[in-house]
Specification:
The chain is α+β, with helices and mostly antiparallel strands and 173 residues long. Helices cover 45% and strands 10% of the residues. The protein is built from seven helices and four strands; from the N terminus they run H-H-H-E-E-E-H-E-H-H-H. Strand 3, helix 4 and strand 4 form a beta-alpha-beta unit. Helix 3 packs across helix 6. The chain binds zinc ion (ZN).
Length: 173
């Protein structure tokens, strides 16, 4: 039987991920536990296979899931539920108002962070977890393209338009 259990980070991956000492990594892992969701792992592994070398949860606003420091590229994998994916961001029947408010808060925070990073010269790539699940190759291609073109603000807010539509009348920095 094929187990679906996913470790936050396999030892193998942890070993090659970074230059942290075991103590540093342990501290880091305890701080970020819960951020290493499955789609994020899938994307990281796929990027690694393509030779892309990244930093995890680099200390800039929003703690992006994957960061290419030299290129100033920040990659987020947004969970469909928590970030209000238009396709999968269903409102729970119970405490609907609470969840709407909560998720809306997350979406607005995502937007603020994207804007803040852009102002600081970061290229921000946001992907839905379902994009990573359904079209991993496509997502990888977009990240690699951003790395190769090295253009600032190439793709600020991706297909999150469904949710961000109502918020999109923002002035460009
Ligand atoms: Zn989704």
């Amino acid at each position: 039987m094929n187990s679906e259990r996913i470790d936050p980070m396999t030892d193998q991956e942890a070993a090659r991920t970074d230059v942290m000492t075991p103590a540093q990594r342990s501290r880091c892992m305890s701080r970020i536990r819960g951020k290493n969701t499955k789609p994020e792992l899938l994307l990281r592994k796929a990027l690694w296979r393509k030779g892309a070398r990244y930093r995890l949860h680099y200390k800039i606003p929003g703690r992006p899931d994957i960061v290419f420091v030299g290129k100033r590229i920040a990659v987020f994998v947004d969970g469909c539920f928590w970030h209000g994916c238009p396709e999968h961001g269903v409102s729970p029947k119970t405490n609907a108002a609470f969840w709407r408010k909560k998720i809306r808060g997350n979406v607005e925070r995502d937007r603020r962070i994207t804007e803040e990073l852009r102002r600081d010269g970061w290229t921000v790539l946001r992907f839905w977890e379902h994009e990573v699940r359904d079209d991993l190759e496509g997502v990888v291609s977009k990240v690699l393209l951003a790395i190769e073109t090295d253009t600032k603000n190439l793709a600020a807010v991706h297909e999150n338009q469904g949710t961000l539509q109502e918020l999109s009348s923002l002035p460009d920095p």
